[in-house]
């Protein structure tokens, strides 16, 4: 029996743990090279923003996770519900409710005072990285870890998923802001990760989770973005945000057409 289980366990470990962590590591390295080491958010560099978005956020942060998820779909380890790509109606409802609650928080606690245009600019600047973070930390690693420890029960799989993804998201601080890394910045990112983990595993919606992570990130990173991006409508920032959202929608469309989860009623 042990001899039969070992190959299966080895395969599951590689598919559900090793490969997702390798993707996370590659994404972190690219984020450090293209954003963190260049202080991209703290100085004006429109070309750098586009390059960072295309390579680190879209290719490594979104497309490669999609390729990994395709294989776990085929094996039956995850499904559309678990990775957070839902029906159009369900997605719109989750986003509207999340935006409504988020708007109230912005009105009350806006770190830029009454200037909401500045908050929108900061949100759009961080959005490509936010979507990539959600795709890698929760859609890829979170669901795969849950699948790996599923035999331990729902409580264990949820707890492990939330704790691990929160720590991984917290570690992104090392890639984004290595020059000014402080203990409170890491702690803030871990807290955002916990909130996002609870939200994602409860709501199971990629778009709504991206909104939550993006808004929370603006609150914690407001003083680490150059005013040029905040007070002006920079085309490269808006284009980058649009490309990231369109890529996410394309991934959603592809998965919906090729991997449909059918609920079979229990007699």
Walk me through the structure.
- It is a single chain.
- With 267 residues, the chain is an all-alpha fold.
- The chain has helices at residues 2-36, 46-75, 80-83, 88-109, 116-148, 154-176, 183-203, 206-221, 227-231, 235-258.
- The protein is 80% helix and 0% strand.
- Helix 1 runs antiparallel to helix 5 (116-148), helix 2 runs parallel beside helix 5 (116-148) and helix 7 (183-203) packs antiparallel against helix 8.
- The longest helix has 35 residues, at 2-36.
- It is globular.
- It starts with a helix and ends in a 9-residue tail after the last helix.
Q: In sequence order, what are the helices and strands, one letter per element?
A: HHHHHHHHHH
Strand content: under 5%
Q: What best-fitting shape do the alpha-carbon axes yield?
A: globular
* Largest sheet descriptor: none
Question: How confident overall, as mean pLDDT?
Answer: 89
Number of helices: 10
User: Low-confidence stretches at least 5 residues in length (pLDDT < 50)?
Assistant: none
Total strand segments: 0
- Straight-line distance between termini: 33 Å
Structural class: mainly alpha
Radius of gyration: 19 Å
Estimated helix fraction: over 70%
Give a brief rundown of this model.
By secondary structure, the chain is mostly helical. The protein is built from ten helices and no strands.
